[in-house]
Amino acid sequence: MPTRTARTAWTGGLQDGSGQVELASSGVGKFDVSFPKRTADTAEGTTSPEELIAAAHSSCYAMALSGQIATAGGTVQSLAVDADVTLGPDPAGGFHISTIKLTVRGKVDGLDAAGFQAAAEGAKVGCPISKALAGVGTIELDAALES
After folding, report:
1. What would the pLDDT profile of 127-142 be if each residue is shown by its tens digit?
2. Which of 109, 105, 135 is nearest to 120 (CA)?
3. How many other C-beta atoms are found inside a 10 Å radius of the C-beta of residue 116?
4. Is 46 helix (H, G, I), strand (E, B) or coil?
5. What is the C-alpha to C-alpha distance for residues 19 and 10, in angstroms, rounded to an integer?
6. pTM
């Protein structure tokens, strides 16, 4: 299996510095990062490690759920997956990812709501990014079929 690479070039201190993260393996882009914007309510054109984790988790989860649905005998018409990653203060000091909430809405043939929910829970457990994030306090799931 392949290894994927991202790299960050950073200058300055934590509060006054900034950097650029590059998706090096794919070459699809470079994105600005900044600690003050990371902890602000608005991102103002910068990304953050939490947003990148959210992107990784939502895409991995969509793939895992698609596989779970197929295994259960269903056919995916569409899946919309949001991942909300929350950065908060760590009681031990500093910061940590306190919660991740996955929200999925799916249009699926061949499964009822219970079958979809079972596939959604299985994908949450089986997704490689969910496994990597097992140290997060809570990974919530809100899954529902749409008609």
Report:
1. 999 999 988 878 999 9
2. 105
3. 22
4. coil
5. 4
6. 0.93
